[in-house]
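Predict both folds.
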Amino acid sequence: MEDKVTVIAHLRARPGKEKKTREALLALCGPTRAEKGCINYDLHESADDPALFAFHENRVCKDDLDSHLKTAHIQGFFKRIDELLAEPPKITLWRFIG
């Protein structure tokens, strides 16, 4: 069985799109948390920069993450990236070690 996978994603809203970006990201939380293999899916907003957001997410395995990326709600958000984000999301995968 694969090990649990952790995802940390940083997203920066376009100037003037902070509220719409926040709303779009919050809308992903409910459906994502209901997905198979989702341990947690937590959205954070920078305390210093209202345009900067981060997701901290844990999945049972990489296959569950791959399935998540194909869902309608995530694909719908991807179609809005150019409208909402100032730059491509920075998504990194992590392994728990201690």
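Second protein follows, with its predicted structure tokens after the sequence.
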Amino acid sequence: MHRLTKKQARRIAVRAQLLDAPRPRDLLSVVERLTLLQVDPTAAIAPNADLVAWSRLGSSYRPEQLRRALEVERTLFEFNALIRPMSDVGLYLAGADGYRGQSRVDVWLRDNDRCRRDILRLLKRSGPLTSRDIPDTCVVPWASSGWTNDRNVTQMLEFMQARGQVAISSRVGRERLWDLPERVYPRDVEIPPAEEAERIKNERRLAALGIARAKARAMPMEPIHVGETGEPAVVEGVKGEWRVDPAYLDGAFRGRTALLSPFDRLIHDRVRTEELFEFEYTLEMYKPAAKRRWGYFALPILHGDELVGKLDAAADRKASVLRVNAIHEDVRFTPAMTRAVEKEIADLAAWLELDVR
């Protein structure tokens, strides 16, 4: 059993997320370590995938690098609103059969199997298409109380992707282009048994997080638990047992200052963030303006192994300005911290090709 202080646990988490110094050098190695970049189109400052990449790579990163990796080099792929390394594609195709048994979905797919076959024939003949380009030949509409109600083609494509029958080839703006998987994924992809794939995904997730719980509450898109992989640990002042990747137990720590996306994996698990970093954070874009404490799209501020505040800023592209509305200090900034944060803000503005105001 490893016994860790909170500082040690925080440093493990920061190192695992490539937020220590020196910075990594290329996009692919970043995504291979993090295992994912979440696709979120909110661009109050920049889309999440780009902002996460910038926070690791700095201004050497350009968004066209991500597009090229996804659409030309095929070293990355998009699956379920997450961008992952193509080397992991077999792990997610391994679970394709596991989606069977969800009775409502199975019945709907059975009733609309002709539509599924129509889509495959059309893609084979025409190549990549958006959902709007695909005729709706479903005989039973998809019923939902939300935005997916009667969006039959979109739902069919989502279910087919989960089952490995179609793949996202590229995007035009925010629209996905769908194609046959053999035109997107490597032809020689190895698909392990589902149980082995789950074990490997847990190992990869722990390597990306550094320290995590064996079991945790369900989360959309990507779990935050890691099963029994790694080694057991306890953290001083925090209840319960953790799993830690032993690769991070040794080695010197060199911290730096970073501005994080609200969707960054370091702070995505809000419970872990409060337990290890004693940092409270809520994305407030869905709150009325009068009820916001930190701002519409506030960026958590990392300094060394501590989360020290939030940056309330917005990219005003029409005025060519990065507007800094406020810097909320959770702890009193030292002059050195202030200089480091200001340097990161200036770097962010330069990367966005905006002036700071």
